[in-house]
# Entry
Amino acid sequence: MSSSLELKKQVVDEIKEKITGSQSVVLVDYRGLSVEEITDLRKKYREAGVDYKVYKNTLMRLAFKDAGLEDFNQYLTGPNAVAFSNDPVAPAKITSEFSKDHKDLEIKAGIVDGKLIDLDEIKELAELPSREVLVAKALGGLNAPITGFVNVLQGNIRNLVYALNAIKDKQEA
# Structure
């Protein structure tokens, strides 16, 4: 077996491992972007812990087929790059925000938790608030009834103190 074929098999295995090990995958067409723009995009991905790679379409087709995602192969035309992440929202959010300022970056499709998603679903996913904001909202929602209960209890105690002060003032006068 030739070393070239062995290297290709290793790359296919690497792609398949990244597909199956990631919560989300976003496929983009980067045609028309300058080297500086691509470097900026890579930097944003890296800061968010997203793995951004360019592979040959034939190798990606084999990897997606091996991963049981043959439907994804219809999007593998032209120059493509793939963003892999364990965060289900990060690649979609970064790519969507970047494509607003750079019209040449085309979002093609994605995968979230093993399900193929199209451009509209990627944009919806990108509009979700960050994990921290969602956690804060949930905790705020849980905290609101408790805060209301404490205010009610304080109101009763406060009214009792006012009544006792009024009685004291009346007896002193």
Notes: The chain has two domains: 3-128, 129-173. The mean pLDDT is 84. The helical segments are 3-21, 35-47, 57-66, 90-101, 119-126, 131-172. The beta strands are 24-29, 51-53, 81-85, 106-112, 115-117.
